[in-house]
Amino acid sequence: IQFRKPVFKDSFVLWTPGMSFADLSFPGGERLEGPAPTQAGQMGVVYMPLGSLEGRRWLLKASDEEIRKKVVTDLDKVLPGASREIESLEIVRWGHAMPIIAPGFMSTVQERIRRPEGRLFFAGVDTQVPAIEGAMFSGYQAAQQVRSFLSRKADPR
Fold this sequence. Notes:
alpha+beta, three-stranded antiparallel beta sheet, 4 helices
């Protein structure tokens, strides 16, 4: 979704239980550090996991307009009035599996796989949420860990 102006600035992703889409993310690596960006518009991405066979059948037979209507209706439930700021909304069908993390993953498993091992630092979808945005952010976090590690090694104290 391309918005005419920013509709949400408080975080990278909104999880949306009970909506037609599982999450609404706002890609933008420029927000990882430095001053807040000044931008005229904003890009948003919604993911609509549909389960197995029946979900895939619906995805393939639904028109773009049917999908668009579901997304816009739920968008306004999550961010009231945001649909008025839509400049364009493109539908892309990815008929493949979308991982859905299990209860306890973020509070137990993720902490263990994110932890550095000596001079090894880990990044990827497993250290965040299973999406490209999580992989990108985890790369940033791993780079920060490496910086910290190298600065400690350079300090002879």
